[in-house]
Specification:
With 122 residues, the protein is mainly α. It is built from six helices and no strands.
């Protein structure tokens, strides 16, 4: 979806500067798309497991995803009669969802506006 040139021409005719056109026309119209990109980027980065596994070696700096994976790995490395405590893994996973849900909750309006505009043509 593109922004019509007529909006920019009308703003220039009214005497708006480049900064005013950017701040009053372009940025508000682009906000839903920007927020959608930020939400998807945050979610992907926050849930990344293998990237931080490569460059973080200290256990006290692990991400939430690495900590949850380590709970499962500890029990899988033990004797065969150990059972992975799926209740702990599920509880930790639920706690790790809270920041993602908060980010989505704050940006939900822009995210939904962006999704609604994808089907509009013209």
């Amino acid at each position: 979806m593109s922004i019509p040139k007529e909006l920019f021409e009308a703003a220039e005719t009214d005497g708006a500067s480049e900064f005013k056109i950017y701040s009053r026309i372009l940025l508000p119209l682009s906000r839903p798309a920007i927020m959608t990109c930020l939400i998807l980027y945050f979610t992907g980065t926050y849930n990344d497991l293998y990237g931080p596994l490569i460059y973080i070696s200290s256990h006290d700096k692990w991400t939430m995803a690495q900590g949850i994976k380590s709970i499962e790995d500890i029990f899988n490395l033990g004797p065969r009669d150990y059972i992975v405590p799926w209740n702990l893994v599920s509880a930790a996973t639920l706690l790790s969802l809270i920041p993602v849900l908060l980010v989505f909750g704050f940006a939900q309006k822009q995210f939904m506006d962006s999704m609604a505009r994808t089907g509009i043509k013209g």
